[in-house]
Design brief:
Elements (H helix, E strand, L loop, with lengths): L17 E4 L5 E5 L36 H12 L2 E5 L21 E2 L2 E2 L1 H4 L3 H11 L1 H18 L4 E8 L15 E4 L8 H13 L5 E3 L22 H8 L7 E7 L6 H18 E2 L6 E2 L5
Parallel strand pairs: 2-3, 2-6, 6-9, 7-8
Antiparallel strand pairs: 1-3, 4-5, 7-9, 10-11
Length: 294
Amino acid sequence: MADAGTQAQNVDADKPLYETVRGRNSLLLISVHEGDYIPRALHDALDRPLGVVDPADLDRHIAIDLGIREVTRRVAASTGAHVFRATHSRLVADINRCPDETDCVAPIADGTNIPLNAALDAAGRDARVARYFHPAIDGLKRFVAGIAADSGFEPFVICMHSFARILSEDPQNAKTQDICVFSYPEFGHLPNVEAFVRILRKEQPELVIGHDQPFSARTPGLKTPPDDKRMASPTSFHAVVERNNVPNHFALEICQDLISDEAGQTRLARAITSALATTFDFSGGKPRLRIHET
C-alpha cells in the first residue's frame, strides 16, 4: 500500500496537521491520537513544548496514544485499509474532543500542568482551535467523502486508540480490560460490532475484551444522565454519525501495556487483522459481514 501523498493545511512549516493513505478496499482506519508533534511556535521561552516542565510527561498517554501508531500501520499494511492519521500531539488541540470541551485544549492532563494551554484567554483558545482543530476535522470529512464517492458506498470506519491501565489522578481504579470495542449504544442493536467482539473474544481467549466498557461513545449534544461517562467524539461523529453510517463503525482501544514494544505491537496487530478477516469482507466497495454460526 502506498501513500497517495500528504494532504494537509500547511499551518506549520515542519509538519502538516494530518496525513492520509489511500487503501484498496472499504476499510478506513482513523488514528487521531498517534501524533506527538508540538510546533516550535508552541514552545515557551525556555524552548519547552507547551511549557511542560518535565519532558518525560510528553512521552505519557496525556500527549500520545502510545503504541497505536505502530499497530495502525501494521493493520493497514495487512488489510489494505485507507488511513487518516493526525500528526500533532493531542495537547495541541485534541480533535477527538469537542472544541467547547476543556480537554480539547487541556490546561491540565492527568495531573500534569500544561502551562501554555492554561495561559490562553478566550481569544487565544479560539485561535488555537481555528488553527489546529478545524482544519484537521475538515480534512477528515473530505477524506471520508472522497472514499465514499469513489466506491459508491460508505467505508467501514475503525477509530484506533490506546489507553493507560492506571491514571495518575485515579490510581486505585486500574482498568481490567485489555481491549475495548465500542460504538454508539443509543443506536441500538449493532450486529457488526457485536460480531467482531464475539470473534475477537473467541480468537483471543486470554485477553479481557470489553464491549462498551470501560469506554463508550455518545452523539454530541445528546442529553444523558449526569453519571453517563460516554465520550462525544467529533472524529467519529463527522466520519460516521453525520453520514448515517453507525452500523459500519467501532472504536478500538488497546491497553498500552500490551503494545509497549515491537513484539506486542506485532502480536496485537495480527490479532486484530485476524478477527477482522474472520468477521468482515472488505474486498468490494461495500463492507460486508460474513455469515457465522453462533
